[in-house]
Amino acid sequence: NVRFDGGVVEGQDISPFYDPMVAKVIAYGDDRETARKRLVEALRQTALLGPATNRDFLVTCLEKETFIKGEATTAFIGEIFGETSYTAEPVSNETVALQGVLHFIHDRGQALDRAISVPDALKNFSTTGALQTPYSLLIGEEIFDLTVSSAQAGSYQVDITFEEGAETILVETHDDEQVTPDVSLSFNVNNKIFKSRAVFDANVLFHAMQSADTAIFLSSINQLHVTDDGADGSAGGLVTAPLHGRVIEVFVKVGDKVEEGQKLAVVEAMKMQHEIFSEVEGDVIDVRIVSDQQVSVNDLMIEIAEEDAGDKEDA
User: Fold this and answer.
1) Which residues contact 219 (CB under 8 A, 6 or more apart)?
2) Which of 9, 58, 172, 277 is most open to solvent, judged by the fewest CB atoms within 10 Å of its CB?
3) Which domains does the chain have, with CATH numbers?
4) What would the pLDDT profile of 146-171 be if each residue is shown by its tens digit?
């Protein structure tokens, strides 16, 4: 009773030019209302991890009373959403907590891959009790500070900190814990069931989740993430792109002297802006990016000739 006509494959770039349609979803039924309900459910269960889509907007339209009554006209969007247009629902604390747990599971998996041998019984063991892992998640234009701890497999405590206080959220799962688009996980978040499918691209988590009353996409970056060499996707004077995205602004040019911690550029991905800072003090000797340029993860963007300790003392 539902047909999907898709035209994309995994790894394909979706251009923002012309009509970037990726799929059509068509529902059938004995009457209009049956078809509408099937279409809503089909869209809720649809997951396209990567580019932002209008799926949530379509579900919202299909659930408006005007559409349900069959009274929608060409003026429907303007009449329903007004001049402010469509705005997505605010991110709930439960979904933020689930983002944190998926980051935790991913990070733990990477750590275990680097370890020689860790028995399953010791994966969450600590002589000091459950260890708390801090995260600073950039979701949309908001940053959420939280910690995730796990005393046993499949059980997590997430503490989210706000200016006005904090909230503790419990997350549990009985599924095999791995973050891959091929596996759908089921989580109990404060006694609310979520179906989850997610994937990491570089340090960006793309996540589709569905509960009984909501279905949303979220993407997040852990602002505290650092690579093994201590730099966020870069090493010394070589400044590389931490993720796939578009350069919004470049603040330096060849010949400029920069300080450690100075802002160099801003890269946007999935409507999230990622500020790029210098890890070193020195002179800019190469700038390979310009505003509105697309970059891929690990692309060299800026090169800085690091000023050594002797030069600093002479200065």
Assistant:
1) 139, 204, 205, 206, 207, 269, 270, 272
2) 9
3) 2-81 (no CATH), 93-222 (3.30.700), 238-314 (2.40.50.100)
4) 999 887 778 899 999 988 889 999 99
